[in-house]
Structures are given as structure tokens and as C-alpha cells.
Design a protein that fits this description.
Elements: H1 10-13, H2 17-29, H3 38-50, E1 54-59, E2 63-70, E3 76-82, H4 109-126, E4 131-138, H5 148-154, H6 157-160, E5 165-172, E6 180-182, E7 185-188, E8 190-199, E9 203-204, H7 214-225, H8 227-232, E10 239-247, E11 254-255, E12 258-267, H9 270-290, E13 294-300, E14 306-308, H10 310-324, E15 329-331, H11 342-345, E16 350-356, H12 376-391
Parallel strand pairs: 3-4, 3-5, 5-16, 6-15
Antiparallel strand pairs: 1-2, 2-4, 6-16, 7-14, 8-12, 8-13, 9-11, 10-12
Helix pairs in contact: 2-4, 4-12, 7-9, 10-12
């Protein structure tokens, strides 16, 4: 039987709005890059310890894990927020703009951290849940393939701090503040990279017949790679193959020895992901061979697809509707960006949510981006109510 129906509401967080804003702006003004989040982690850990959580520092780097058990319930829920900033010079001109040259919170991790801290304070103060809550403050989400989530997992996250389900959240520019967007199944893409090195035979530009021109091979390959999605992937599936850089040669009268292509490959289905890798290998090798050149492919698997489990997503949808109303909860479209939260979801059921950051918000990773403080109370209340409801089931 449920212990109580008096769950967290938006109104419960209105008194904390000024404090949440102050915390968020403090974090924004003092950004730390991936693997450098020592001061941010200290700030977070000291607050959690003051509120009565059992806090473990330096999990998978600068990661902080806080746990609290109330009552005799055996269920456990985990909620994750990321803490790191980006190597971007801020151009907002705001009073709380970054104080650190070349570093800024251009993806809203300052807001994510502040919201989870807000929920943490409320849960510790009210203690209206029956079970264990695990709060994960993750470092190095922006670090690429070698990032904070797999590092925390490798450091024993699941074994040292067992939990049943896990939730995370990211702000969503373009959607109204305080609205929630969700999707069952695939949400964000797997992100792989490929570096293709074409080796030909260099020589004088006036005598191309005595060379094997890697620039020509590279140009043919770039065009042909555009057929990987259009002619190899089921039209009902979604995938992206983009060549983002070509490097070759230094002089107009020299045919170089090598050319290099740098690519990003995005997909939402494991079979499509495998198909893309296979086709890129075969096309690169066969086209190079056709010109008498050689292609070497360094293919790196990045973060897997973010796949939200059905039960946990539906539960979060219900809780969000209770909190903000059905008209402020909507289905999220597929997002071709990647997220290392996907590593957690490979091990535990859960869901990754999106929270509106304003219709006119600057895009993520922009030097003019800022997290919308109007969304802080909605995010904090969502985490608090979700915890109370899940542990009260």
C-alpha cells in the first residue's frame, strides 16, 4: 500500500527558486572541463554531506555518488546529473558569465547539477519515501568515447551502489521552459567515428600519370559514402554519415602521398550500426583499390544508442503529467546527438528525459547558450516526485 499521496509539487520548490538559481549561476561562472571537475565535485559533495547523505567521492574520476535510505522499503532508484563544461569562450555578456577564459557551461550541465541538488535537499528534508535513492553526479560527459559514464561503471558503480532503475535528463532548446519531452525506445544516436587514410604515390603535379593521386581517391570516396545511407539503409530507419574533414597535401604543384578523411557515423539501431561500419569498410577499400591505392580504416565505436525502457518511460510520463499537466508533456523526436547515459541503460532499465530550455534558447554548444533558470523548479520537482512515487509503489 502507498505510504502517502502527498508527493512533491512545483509549489514545494518555489521557496527554493532563488537558491537554485544562485547555485546554478555559481556553477556557470566557475566551469570545469571533463576530468577537471575537482572544485565542482567538492561543492556538490559538501552540500550533500550537510544534508545527511552518505557520500562517496572520486568514483570514476571526480564522480560523486550520494545515497540515502528511508524506511524499510527494498526498492532503489538512481538519478544522474552531469557536471562538466566545454572548451568554449562565452559570449553571453551575462552577469554570471564564465570567469574562466575558454571554458563555459554551453550544454546546461550547470542546470542539471543544480536541479538534482534541489531534489536532494528536498528529499533529505522531507524524507517522504520508502527505500533507497542514489544520486549520481557524473564527470566527463563531454569527453567523447572515453567518458565519465563508462569510467564510473568500471569503478564499480553498479556493485558498490546497487539500484533497480536509473533516470537522467537533458535540457532541450526549442521547447518551452518547464515542459517535458520523452520517448520510449531509441532516443539519441550511437556516435561512431572513422578515420580513413588513403595511401597513393606522390609526385609532380604536371605528371599525374606517374602517380596514384590520393586526393582524387578521397573525392570519389566522399561522394560514394553518401550512398551508404541512401542506398544501403532501410528508408524507414534513420542514419547519418558525414565526412567532416579532408586533409591532404600542402602545395599546388605536388601530388601528395596520402589523404585522410575524418567521419562521424550516427545510427539508432544496432543492426544499422553494424551495416554502416561494414559498408564504409568495403567501399573505402574497393574504391582505393580501383585506383591502385590503399585505404586503412580506423573505426572507433563511440557511445551506444540511448534506449529508454518502456515501463520506466511510461512511469516518468505519468509523473510528469501529475506535476506539470498533460499539455506540458509531449513526445520527443529522435535526436542525432549522442549521450554517454546510454552506457547506464545498457545495464539497467530506465529513461533519459528532455526538459524545455525555452523556445528562443540558443542551441547547445553555442557560445551564446545559457540554461533557463525558469526550468530549475520543474526539474528539481520532477526528480523529487519521481523518487517518492517510485519508492512508494
Amino acid at each position: 500500500m502507498p505510504l502517502t499521496n502527498d508527493y512533491a509539487n512545483l509549489s514545494d520548490f518555489e521557496p527554493a527558486k532563488a537558491e537554485l538559481t544562485a547555485i546554478r549561476r555559481h556553477l556557470h561562472a566557475n566551469p570545469e572541463l571533463s576530468f577537471e571537475e575537482a572544485e565542482t565535485a567538492r561543492f556538490v559533495a559538501e552540500k550533500l554531506e550537510a544534508w545527511g547523505y552518505h557520500v562517496t567521492r572520486n568514483v570514476g574520476g571526480h564522480g560523486v555518488v550520494a545515497r540515502m535510505t528511508v524506511g524499510s522499503g527494498t526498492k532503489s532508484i538512481a538519478i544522474r546529473a552531469d557536471m562538466d563544461a566545454l572548451p568554449i569562450t562565452e559570449q553571453t555578456g551575462l552577469d554570471h558569465a564564465s570567469k574562466v577564459a575558454g571554458k563555459m557551461h554551453a550544454c546546461g550541465h550547470d542546470g542539471h547539477t543544480a536541479m538534482l541538488l534541489g531534489a536532494a535537499e528536498y528529499l533529505a528534508r522531507t524524507r517522504r519515501f520508502n527505500g533507497t535513492v542514489t544520486l549520481i553526479f557524473q564527470p566527463a560527459e563531454e569527453a567523447g568515447a572515453v567518458s565519465g559514464a563508462p569510467a564510473m561503471i568500471a569503478d564499480g558503480l553498479f556493485e558498490r551502489f546497487p539500484f533497480d532503475v536509473i533516470y537522467g535528463l537533458h535540457n532541450h532548446p526549442g521547447a518551452p521552459e518547464g515542459t517535458f519531452l520523452m520517448r520510449t525506445g531509441p532516443l539519441m544516436a550511437a556516435a561512431d567515428t572513422a578515420e580513413i587514410t588513403i595511401t597513393g604515390k606522390g609526385g609532380h603535379a604536371s605528371r599525374p600519370h606517374l602517380t596514384i593521386d590520393p586526393v582524387v581517391v578521397a573525392c570519389h570516396l566522399v561522394v560514394t559514402l553518401q550512398t551508404v545511407v541512401s542506398r544501403s539503409v532501410d528508408p524507414t530507419q534513420t542514419a547519418v554519415v558525414t565526412v567532416g574533414a579532408i586533409h591532404s597535401g600542402e602545395a599546388s604543384n605536388v601530388i601528395p602521398e596520402n589523404a585522410k578523411l575524418l567521419m562521424t557515423v550516427r545510427s539508432f539501431d544496432p543492426k544499422v550500426r553494424e551495416l554502416l561500419e561494414t559498408r564504409i569498410h568495403k567501399l573505402s577499400e574497393s574504391i582505393a583499390e580501383g585506383f591502385g591505392a590503399k585505404a586503412e580504416i580506423d573505426y572507433v565505436h563511440g557511445h551506444p544508442v540511448v534506449v529508454n525502457s518502456e515501463t520506466e518511460t511510461e512511469f516518468a510520463w505519468t509523473v510528469a503529467e501529475e506535476l506539470v499537466g498533460a499539455d506540458r508533456v509531449t513526445t520527443c523526436g529522435l535526436i542525432p546527438g549522442s549521450e554517454d547515459f546510454s552506457h547506464f541503460l545498457e545495464h539497467k532499465p530506465g529513461a533519459f528525459l528532455r526538459l524545455g530550455n525555452g523556445v528562443n534558447s540558443a542551441i547547445l554548444h553555442s557560445a551564446r547558450y545559457d540554461f533557463a533558470d525558469e526550468s530549475l523548479t520543474a526539474g528539481a520537482a520532477m526528480w523529487a516526485r519521481l523518487t517518492e512515487r517510485y519508492l512508494d509503489e
